[in-house]
Specification:
There is one protein chain. This protein has 699 residues and is an alpha+beta fold. Among the domains are: 148 residues, Endopeptidase. Chain P, domain 1 (Glutathione S-transferase Yfyf (Class Pi), Chain A, domain 2); 73 residues, no CATH class; 166 residues, Neurolysin, domain 3. The chain is 56% helix and 7% strand. The chain has 27 helices and eleven strands. Helix 2 runs parallel beside helix 4, helix 5 packs antiparallel against helix 6 and helix 17 crosses helix 25. The radius of gyration is 25 Å and the shape is globular. 45% of the residues are buried.
């Protein structure tokens, strides 16, 4: 057995809390290859000895694969957060074998026909629970979409496509990370740093020191600006030197699109392979294949949904753009039109003038430790859970990582999670995400495996002698990822295949996360998680009112940008190629011309950095952010209707939300989950109201 032959290898058998402090890249391959041999043998035995029942097939199959997939998940996590040549080599060496094993299991005709027999038996004489019935249906569909029905050359080609796609996704992600970490804009003249907030000065000086400039200070420089959001976003908002903003903006628009770090060919190849794969499975387009696993019934439904929101936003966005240009001209801007590097700068100036507060003024109220405490207090208030710091109780992969335990109100352990908060541009993938290491699962011996989650953010790290202060958008991001984690950790389902976030349709998976963002605009919540770094005062009412007045600043433009991403995605996967689109970039340009009030740069290569589509799970599914937001806004409206200042009503509504949207997870269809909470089908009205927009007739 692996645990005997590799007794000291931390990958050999992942315990409840992985031994991250002992994991090294060279340990991964021998452990996973041994686990692969075990899993292959276990599945082969099961094919010969199983009974077509839940306990005779479904559960033993999951147990046979679990040790291997646990270890592979940890390796993939370490590649994302501690990227290095060693982790890349280990991942690349193992990935083909992992893909081959997964296909062998999914394409097993013995297993597939036994699953069909179990489904038919349950239909004739129902014995399965609702969650198990959903898991079974998902397993059958997954087998069919993994090519179980293909034979001969078709199956050989399908499997080759899967191998190539897996390698392309990894290469896309690694190339994007390399493009971000290798770019630097150096600023040496203090005059060019005039007007920068203290947080940007500090972060840029720290980035310079990490790049070999030990003399760098926040006051005197030199300052290093990277493509990472922690410095790039505030730089574009606050740098008065227009030429420097232009340089960074062009670099961001063209990242991972030239030289040795070019994802252009990968984009085209991924799209081509997806089309071919869908065709082998009998689907007209990859979008049809993707939507067969989602809430949205069809491409046409997604198109209508996107068009209805665009209709509501298009005219307000035009007004926003005209108002911004007029403001800029009033303050000395002399160009005929705003360029992409002008918009964030002048939008920040207009927002400061219109609402009378600065981003840095607001940031002083959000020290990271206090925000965390306030977030956990909100979880206790709404859902009756306690979250306790347990640093030191689990090993971690980086000194910045925190560890927490989650308990029910009566002290019952519910879950554990890690939090990796700060950006590390050289080794950590950009963006923010939640991942699951363990899922709530009732074991054959009756024991209960508790969920183990990880929250990964890329917020601004602490500066020189300053505590970590959060931008307000970083607060929103933390709440968003914590919403994902809550749905995973507070699940009531005890079958791993539908527990937590597992088996939730992808266009509903953002509901719990986007729901939590709404609480960043609740007065009591925001005051509770704020403490001024110098005075210890809570966010004052006048600043809260200014923040709320600014909530919908440029909301229509922001909505159209999100719709642009979703429409581009659907065009690429439902309608490309066409004669009018010579390449994938032309698809993006066409969508931009139809939706964006601000033209893209001619050299823009957005797709080369669009990891959601080409290195993640959002292909033909990016619309799901807005689809989910309809449900999440309507869910929050239930608290508004109960009265946000009515504590008993808020707590009661929160417990109902926990018992439905958080607890039912992937064991119940998402439309049924929502109706169980809300008592009716969702409405788009709350989303548009929160954005300050009026529903068009098509809504």
């Amino acid at each position: 057995m692996t645990q005997n032959t590799l007794p000291d290898n931390p990958f050999a058998r992942i315990p409840d809390l992985p031994a991250f402090d002992r994991m090294q890249p060279e340990q991964a391959e021998p452990a996973l290859r041994a686990l692969l041999d075990e899993a292959t043998a276990a599945v082969a035995r099961l094919e010969q000895t199983h009974l077509p029942t839940w306990d005779g097939l479904v559960d033993p199959l999951a147990r046979a694969c679990e040790p291997l997939f646990d270890a592979w998940g940890i390796l993939s996590h370490l590649l994302a957060v501690m990227n290095s040549d060693g982790w890349r080599q280990a991942h690349n060496a193992l990935q083909p074998a992992i893909v081959t094993f997964s296909l062998q299991v999914s394409q097993s005709p013995i297993v597939y026909h036994s699953l069909l027999a179990l489904r038919d038996a349950d239909r004739a004489h129902p014995t399965l629970t609702g969650p198990r019935r959903r898991i079974l249906a998902s397993m059958i569909r997954s087998a069919e979409q993994a090519g179980v029905g293909l034979e001969g050359e078709a199956r050989t080609r399908f499997n080759a496509i899967q191998q190539e796609l897996a390698g392309l996704f990894t290469a896309f992600s690694n190339t994007l990370l390399d493009a971000v970490k290798t770019y630097t804009l150096w600023v040496s003249d203090p005059r060019d740093a005039a007007g920068w907030p203290a947080s940007l000065l500090s972060a840029a000086a720290e980035a310079a020191r990490q790049a070999g400039k030990p003399e760098a200070t926040a006051t005197d420089g030199p300052w290093r600006i990277t493509l990472d959001d922690a410095t790039a976003a505030p730089f574009l908002k606050h740098c008065r030197n227009r030429a420097l903003r232009e340089e960074l903006c062009r670099a961001s628009a063209t990242k991972a699109s030239s030289g040795a770090l070019d994802n252009s060919s990968r984009v085209e190849r991924i799209l081509s392979l997806r089309r071919e794969m869908a065709g082998l499975l009998g689907y007209a387009t990859y979008a049809e294949l993707s939507l067969s696993r989602k809430m949205a019934p069809s491409v046409a439904d997604v198109d209508r949904f996107s068009a209805s929101l665009a209709d509501a936003a298009r005219e307000p966005a035009r007004r926003e753009q005209a108002e911004l240009l007029a403001f800029a001209r009033e303050h000395g801007f002399i160009e005929a039109a705003l360029s992409p590097w002008d918009v964030p700068f002048w939008a920040e100036r207009e927002r400061e003038a219109r609402f009378d507060y600065s981003e840095e003024e607001l940031r002083a109220y959000f020290p990271f430790p206090r925000v965390l405490d306030g977030l956990f207090e909100l979880a206790e208030r709404l859902f009756g859970v306690r979250i306790e710091a347990a640093d030191g109780a689990a090993s971690v992969w980086h000194p910045d990582v925190r560890f927490f335990r989650v308990r029910d109100a009566d002290g019952t352990p519910l879950a554990n999670f890690y939090l990796d908060p700060y950006c590390r541009p050289a080794t950590k993938r950009g963006g923010a995400w939640m991942d699951a290491f363990h899922t709530r699962d009732r074991r054959p011996d009756g024991s209960l495996q508790l969920p183990l989650a990880v929250l990964v953010c890329n917020q601004t790290p602490p500066g020189e002698g300053r505590p970590p202060l959060m931008r307000f958008d970083e607060v929103n991001t933390l709440f968003h990822e914590f919403g994902h984690a809550l749905q995973h950790m507070l699940t009531g389902v005890e079958d791993a295949g539908a527990s937590g976030i597992n088996n939730i349709e992808w266009d509903a998976v953002e509901v719990a996360s986007q729901f939590m963002e709404n609480w960043c605009h609740d007065r009591a919540t925001l005051r509770g998680l704020s403490r001024h770094i110098e005075t210890d005062a809570q966010l004052p009412d006048d600043l809260f009112l200014k923040l709320e007045a600014a909530r919908n600043y440029r909301a229509a433009s922001n909505l159209l940008r999100q719709l642009f991403f979703g429409v581009t995605d659907m065009d690429l996967h439902a309608r490309y190629p066409q004669p009018k689109w010579p390449d994938a970039n032309a698809v993006k340009c066409d969508a931009a011309s139809r939706l964006l009030p601000q033209p893209l740069l001619p050299e823009d290569r957005l797709l080369c950095g669009f990891a959601h589509l080409f290195a993640g799970g959002y292909a033909a599914g990016y619309y799901g952010y807005k689809w989910s937001e309809v449900l999440s806004a309507d869910a929050f409206a239930a608290f508004e209707e109960a009265g946000l200042d009515q504590e008993a009503a808020v707590r009661a509504t929160g417990r109902r939300y926990r018992a439905t949207i958080l607890a039912l997870g992937g064991g119940t269809p998402p439309e049924d989950v929502f109706e169980a909470f809300r008592g009716r089908a969702p409405s788009v009205d709350a989303l548009l109201r929160h954005a300050g927009l009026k529903p068009p007739r098509s809504c």
